[in-house]
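Researcher: Before we compare anything, I want clean individual predictions. No alignment, no superposition, just each chain on its own. First chain goes here; please echo the sequence and then give the C-alpha cells.
Model: Echoing the first chain and its structure:
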Amino acid sequence: MRKMVMLIGLSITLLQGCAKYEPLVDTRGRSGTYNESRAEEITNDKLLCSQFAKNNTTKMSNVTYWIFSPKMETRYQAYYRQCLHNRGHSVIN
C-alpha cells in the first residue's frame, strides 16, 4: 500500500513536468469592459502571466489544487488564465 501511494505520487510529479499549459486566447474578440482589441499585446502578456504563475506556485500546491479543483486544473493554470483575463484577453480554455 505504501509503495503504491509513493508510486502514484512520483508519477503525478513526473507527468506534471511533461505537460505544458498554453491558454487558447480569442484575439479577435473583446473581453470585459474594454472597447478596443488587446490582441497586439498578447505575446508580452503571455510571457508576463506565465512568469507570474511560475513565481507564485509550487509543485505541491499545483497537485493539491488539481486534486480539489472541479475543473481539474492546476493552480498554475488558474493563475495564468486569470492574469490574462485581468489584462483584457478573452481566454477560451
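Researcher: Okay. Second chain, same rules.
Model: Second chain and its structure:
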Amino acid sequence: MKKPTNSAAPHGLQTIADREQSLLAQYAMHSTNSLGRKHPEDEHPYRGPFQRDRDRIVHTAAYRRLSGKMQVFTGDMGDYHRTRLTHTYEVASIARTIARALRLNEDLVEALALFHDIGHPPFGHAGEDALNECLADEGGFSHNWHALVIAEDLETPYFEFPGLNLTHEVLEGQRKRIDKADGERRLLEVQLVDAADSITYNAHDTDDAVKLELVSLDELATNSLVKSCMDRVKLRFGTLDDEMLRKAVVHELIDCQVSDLLDHCGAGLSEHSESQSDPDISGFVIRLGQEMAEQAKELGSFLYERVYRHEKLIEVRKEAQRRLHIMFSGYVDRPQLLPQKHIERIDSVGIARAVVEYLAGMTDRYCDEQYHGHFT
C-alpha cells in the first residue's frame, strides 16, 4: 500500500497534514498515519485520503440505489418515512457532530458513515435474512460483507484497478462491523459510527412509527427514555399539538443521547495524555453512559416488539422473502437472465453467490419489476 505523504498544497494552501494537526486530537486517526490503498495512487493536491473515499462512495451506483431501499417501512405506507439513503445521511450528520466535538477525524467518520449500509439488499433486514437463507450452504450473506464486495469488486469506475480502491482504514472499519470480537481494537472513528447509527435509528424509527400511526407517543412514553424526553419538552414549551410534540420529542431523543455520549466519552478521552499518538486507544470504547445505554436498549426492545414486528410490516416482509427465494431459484436455473457482469462473476464466486450479489443490488421497486417480469 502507498501511504499518503501530504505534500505541499497548491497555491500556498494549507496541507491536509497541517490542517489535521491543528484540529485533531492525538488519539484521532490522522491521514499521515493511514496505511494507504491496495493499489498505489498519486496523492490528491487538496483532498485528503478519507475525503477521496467519501467522494468515491457517494458517486457509486450502489449508494444511489439506497434511495430505493426501505429502511424499516415500505413505500406503500407513504413517502414520509426514512429510506436506507436518508438513514445514511442522518447517521453521517450525527457522527460528524460527535467527531468534531471529540476532535476525531471527521473525513474518516463521514466516509465510514456513508459506507456503512451500502451493502443492504432490498426490503431491509427481511431481504437480508432471505438472501442469507439462500446462501446457507455457502457461508451465508450479510450486508456488511456485501459492502466490501461492492467496494472491491462490483463497482468498477476506474480503468487502472478493480473496485473503488478505498483506504485500508475504511475497508478495515467495515470488516470489523462483520466480526465485533470482544477486546478487538477498533479505531475510535469506527466505534463512533456504530454509536451514531444506534442513536439515529432509535430516534427516526420512533418518528416514523408515530407518523405512520403504528404506535402513539403515549404508548412510547411507557419507555423511560421517551418519557423523560417528553417531560423535558413539555416543561420547556408547554402544551403542543400532536404534530409538534412528536417532532420535539424526536429532536430531544437525538440531543440527549448525543450529549450523554459526549459527556461520557469527553471525560474519558481527556484522561489520556495528549502525547498518546496511537489512534487505537486500548480499552477505550465510544458509547453512552450506563444509565442512558440501558434506557436506549429499552427503547430498542420496545421498537422491536411493537414496531418492527407490527402485523402490517410482517406481511410485507413475508411476501418480499417469498419473492426473493423464488427469484434466487429462478436465476440459478436460468443464469442467462443475469446481467453480463454478474454472469462473469459465476466463474469466480459460483452461481449461487453471483445471483445473490445481483439480487442484493436491486432496489425494492426494481426487485418487484424483475419478479413480475420473469417469475410470475
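Researcher: What stands out in the second chain?
Model: The domain at 47-374 is CATH 1.10.3210.10 (Hypothetical protein af1432). Additionally, The two ends are 49 Å apart (CA to CA).
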